[in-house]
Amino acid sequence: VSTPLRALGPDELPPPFPEDPFGGFFADGGGPGAAPPGLLDTPGAHHWLGLIRETMAADRYTFQQTLEGRSGARVTVGGRSMLLLSAYDYLGLIGHPAVEAAALAAVRSHGTGTGGVRLLTGTTDLHRALEEEIAAFKGVGAALTFGSGYMATLGCVPALVGPRDHVLVDEYAHRSTVDACVLARARLHRFAHNDPDALARELDRVPAGRRALVVVEGVYSMDGDVCPLPDIVALKERRRFHLMVDEAHSLGVLGATGRGVDEHLGVDPRDVDLWMGSLSKAIPSNGGYVAGSRELVYYLQHGAAPFMFSAALCPAAVGAARASLRVLAEEPERLDALRRNAARLREGLRGLGYDVGGSESCVVPVVLGDEERTLAVARGLFDRGVLVSAVIHPAVAHGQARLRLCATAAWTAADVEEALDAFAAVRPPARLRVAGA
Ligand SMILES: Cc1ncc(COP(=O)(O)O)c(C=O)c1O
Predict the structure, then answer these.
(1) Going along 227-318, which residue ranges are E strands?
(2) Across 4-11, average pLDDT
(3) pTM surpassing 0.85?
(4) Atom of ligand 1 nearest to the CA of 151
(5) N or C: which end of the chain has fewer CB within 10 A?
(6) Backbone dihedral angles phi then psi of residue 315, each to the nearest 5 degrees
C-alpha cells in the first residue's frame, strides 16, 4: 500500500545550518547573471592551489612522501632511511609477524575480497568474530564494522539523526563528524573545546522535546588532549542527551589495557550510547566500527547506508584487526613503551622551548602558529632525515599550524633522542614559540 504524497508542513522542512560548517570553503564567486564559475573557482581550491604552488616553488612541500616499503620507526623515502615521527601506528604493530600471518591466513581462507556489501553477501564468519571481539573489548552489547572510521561516522550519524535533531560537537572534532552532520542535515552546534559548561550552555539552545546528540573524542587528533568524559556523562544524566565518542586515537592507547578513554577515566562504557573507532591507527589495519547496545547495532545494520551501499571490509583487514587485538592483550609492554616514548618526547620538546599544548596522550603537537614557518620546519627536519606531518588550515584554525607528532612503541629510546636532537638543530627554539603561548 503506498502512502499518498502530501506537502511538508513548515515545521517539517529541513532547517538551514545555523552557520556554514566549512567557513565558506566551497563558496563560489558566481552571482545572478554571471557565467557559472569553473569547477576550481572556490575559495578552497584557490587556497590549496596557491599554497601548493608557493610551497613547491620554495621547496617546502613535504606532503605525500612515498614510503618504499612498510611504515615503522624507520621508513625508506627516495632510497633514504628516515626516522618517522607522525605515523598512527601507536603500538608499533605494523610488521608484527602475528598480524601479518593473520592477514595472509584470512586471504587464504576467505580470499582477497568478499564480493558483497555487509547486508547482502559480504558478511563472513571473520566479520562476525571481529565484531564480537570489538564489543567484548569495549564492554558493550554489539559492534559493527565499516570500510573506515570516516565511513562509520558517516554511516551512523545520518541513520540516527535528521533535520529536526540537534548535534552538539566539540569545536575540535574531526572532519568526519561535521560531514556526517551535513549529510544528516541536522542542526549543528559547536561548543568550546573540552568545556562541559560551554556544552551545557549550547544544550540550553536546543528546543524542548528535540533530540540532542553530543559528539566528543577520546583523544583529540590534532592536540592530543583527552575529553573530560566523567563530566560529560554526569551532564548527560541531568540533561538527557545522547552521547557518541570517537575513539580513533584512544582505542588501544588509553587505559590500563588499552580499552580506551572509559577505562582511562573510570567511566562505565554503557554510559556512552555510541562508541566509534578506527581500525587503522593503534590497530594497524583498515576499517572502522560502531559499538553500543545490541538493539542499536541491529538497527544500524539496516539503517546505516554504508552497510548496504559500500563493500564489506576485505578479509585481510579483518584478520589483521583481530590479531592486533590479541597482540594488544598479550604484549602489554607495548603500551608501556608507547607511554614512555610519548612522555620523553613531550618533556624533551618542552625543554627545548617548543609549545606542545595540552597534550596528555601519544599525539604530541608542536604548535608553531605560522603556516610558512611550520612548512619550513617540516622541511628542515626532512633534510635532517626526520619525517613529520605538517598540519595547517583547515585541519586546524588559522594561526594554529603545527607539526603533529605521534609517539609509537616502535621507537627505541635512541630514536626519541635523535628526534629531539633534530628539533634542537632545526632552528633556535626561542624563535619558534607561538606569540603569547
Ligand atoms: C578523530 C578521528 N576520527 C575519525 C577518523 C577516521 O578514521 P579512518 O582513518 O579509519 O577513516 C580519524 C582519522 O584520522 C580521526 O582522526
Answers:
(1) 242-246, 274-278, 288-292
(2) 48
(3) yes
(4) 11
(5) N
(6) -55, -40
